[in-house]
What does this fold into?
Amino acid sequence: MIEEAPPLTIAPAHERPPAELVERLRGAPTSFVVDALGGSGALDWRIKPIVGRSVFGVALTCDCGPNDNLALIAAVSQCQPGDVLVAATGSFAGAAVTGDLVLGVARNRGAAGFVTDGLVRDLADLEALGLPVYAMGVTANSPGKRGPGAVGLPVVCGGRAVASGDIIVGDRDGVVVAPRERLKETIANLDRVRAAEAAMAERVRAGLKEFPMSVAARRLDPRA
It folds into this structure.
């Protein structure tokens, strides 16, 4: 006998990284965070800001699958202040995964933003809502609410693995995921990246006319 899959799987509450460590990444450009991670960590380049210019917070994941948002609705009910909802759709482009009403409830619960590898809808109302939204694009088509789906489990969104508790950093360049288990390493590397970038920027402002190859090599390895 083949049993039907449950419509939703909800993981136990995830461990959240210490707030003081999370704050060390706030305001960092995504390019700096990528360099601190060794040169990768960005989601699919097509995921760009639909509303707002930046997003930052702790990931709360949901796996919606194509043309469905039951898992997202369940994730909103688990959302805590400072969370960034990350909805994986398998890059489905046939319908939006959400609009202003679901994300309005998320904002009321203190969500810091929303990221998806799918589409959204209700653009004018999303803009009025003001919650940062990153997505592949916008469509008027609406999703179903049937499941199956999962909340709080690791997902693949925009070609990258994302787990609840990871740090989400987004700006106009896109979205980067800093894994929770690499947070201290990322912060240490980020301090070096910031110092190196500031020193090089000063040299450029002073009239530098040739990029030193030794600096180029160091940029490939933030530990250097």
Notes: The mean pLDDT is 92. The chain is about 30% helix and 25% strand.
